[in-house]
Amino acid sequence: MAQVVIRSLNKKFDEVHAVKDVNLEIRDKEFVVLVGPSGCGKTTTLRMVAGLESVTSGRILIDDKVVNDLPPMDRDIAMVFQNYALYPHMSVYDNMAFGLKMRKFDRAEIGRRVREAADILGIQDYLQRKPRQLSGGQRQRVALGRAIVRHPQVFLFDEPLSNLDAKLRVQMRVELKKLHERLGTTAMYVTHDQVEAMTLGDRVVVMKDGWVQQVGEPLELYNQPANRFVAGFIGSPAMNFATVRLTQNNGSLWAGSEGMHIEVPGELRDRLDRYAGRDVALGIRPEDLRIASAADPAELSFDAAVEVVEKLGSEILLDVAVGPTMMVAAVEPTVPAKVHDRLRLALNPQRLHFFDIETEAAI
Question: pLDDT by residue (tens digit) across 3-49?
């Protein structure tokens, strides 16, 4: 396998600057996921690594070799696309073997590699079937098998699970994770699904408008987001935000807005004191809100009005109004909340996030 190094990578389509100064290093055998909303540049970045898009400026190195001007077939990569791109008139065996035949591998080696990949993916019994005789999940396995038999240095995945139903996507996520552990490959994976990114990636690259916003391990992005965009994009349900004014009173720092007035924990004071008298964005994850008890201090709780109740089985999501601000609270499934109820919510003071209003950077 090999490492992939991207240096100051840019891509322009006429006047559209799609990828902006991307710098990234994917270590040998690492599974890195590029995630972000549509149009953020993640797929364009992947296609430049694959050689399917030209590079406007910057360098791409695979195993310390600059590949900017190499055609895709000479980069020793294999790509799995969103659509399976299988030849409908060929059997599963022939679809998986096609790339090897084009590279003039001998028949015995082709047979060995195809059977080995089929065993790994559990499709041994389907080798003589045509793609139309397979389910969506089975077709995706064939597409994976076609990539595996190549024994490439780098695997590239472009939203390979987006055409599958929800249950099958969860199953295939597990299969992909197992496959990566077994093969020990270097992989780049593109998705717009942050749950997919968090479950699959050794590290996750969050992109927006062509820029890399943050690179880190999944829990690092969740616990220490670099800015408001990352905080709101990572996590499901998304983080709640409220604009609050920071004020000092009797040696304490308070964050207040219409419907909420909470004391800032002491460990955050050093970072927030310079914002006293100014507005900042307060971020609270739904899972860090709970129904307040008598033991919860008043300075760490606030009143809310229930507007929507979503009963998910393992938890209940309450869409609540806190003054003019809408929030979501993920509470225990035993909570008997109903629409129009007024209740008091307590927050976890160790899990508060604050962001600069102008720059949106984490404070």
Answer: 999 999 999 999 999 999 999 999 999 999 999 999 999 999 999 99
Distance CA 89, CA 77 (A): 25
pLDDT number for residue 1: 56
Q: Which residues pair with 349 in a beta bridge?
A: none
Phi, psi of 186 (to 5 degrees): -85, 130
CA–CA distance, 132 with 141 (Å, rounded to integer): 14
Give the CB-side neighbour count of residue 311, counting CA atoms within 13 A.
Answer: 7
Q: Which pLDDT belongs to residue 5?
A: 97
Pairing of strands 31-35, 186-191: parallel
Q: Look at residues 47, 64, 35 and name the one whose alpha carbon lies nearest to residue 9.
A: 47
Return phi, psi of residue 79, to 5°: -120, 135
The answer to whether residues 192 and 33 touch, using CB atoms and an 8 Å cutoff, is no
Q: Rounded to two decimals, what is the model's pTM?
A: 0.90
Instruction: Identify any residues that bridge with 325 across adjacent strands, giving them in sequence order.
Output: 322
Axis-axis angle for helices 107-121, 92-102 (nearest 10): 130
Token output for 212: 């890399």
pLDDT one-digit tens code per residue, 162-176? 888 888 888 888 888
